Amino acid sequence: MKKTNLIISSIAAILFLFSGTMMAQPDKKAEKLLESVVNKTASYKNFKAELSYTMVNVEMDIHEKKSGVIYVEGDKYRIEMEGQVIISDGKTVWTYLEDSQEVMVSDMDESDETVSPTKILTSYNENYKAKFDSDNKYKNSDIKLINLKPNDGKQFEKLSLLVNEKSLEIENFSVYDKSGNVFTYYIVKMEPNIDLPENFFSFDEKDYPDVEVIDMR
Description:
Blueprint: H1 2-15, H2 28-42, E1 47-57, E2 62-73, E3 76-80, E4 84-88, E5 92-97, E6 102-107, H3 117-123, E7 128-132, E8 143-150, E9 156-164, E10 169-177, E11 182-192, E12 212-215
Parallel strand pairs: 6-12
Antiparallel strand pairs: 1-2, 1-11, 2-3, 3-4, 4-5, 5-6, 7-8, 8-9, 9-10, 10-11
Helix pairs in contact: 1-3
């Protein structure tokens, strides 16, 4: 479960940008750009984002690459990433492991940031400072790198976002945690306001007749 929790928490750390909340930011230009990105994305009913993902830990010699898809609608989300599906209806979390044919069921625990994207969403609405990284130059002048640093002790050391100033879209983002892990997500394609089937954000055991249910509630 540890690696699964790392994936959830790193993705969840960035979802605050899609929730419509803002941080306390001293750089006015960075604040204005982030606010525009947030407002645009928060106006969507829902969205689907195709991602390419890397997780690097230099000290532990870990270089992991994956691809996947995230669906978000309010507090509900669905993450599909090479052999596992993580689903939440905002109250319950289902983690389905394809290889072992197991699904772990847990409550959305508001006291546990590691497995609670909703908790992380609301905890990142303040106490962050945003600043443009002037050391990074790109051929496309519309691309801006913004670093977010916490004012006090948080689960993450830093968040870095590559933003297209013209389209108001995030190109990629990196999450630096206190264990030396760097999670980077490249947004390959994003589709807002899509039609989703009923019960898309829940796990129906009838669709997986051979699944072993591990109820951790």
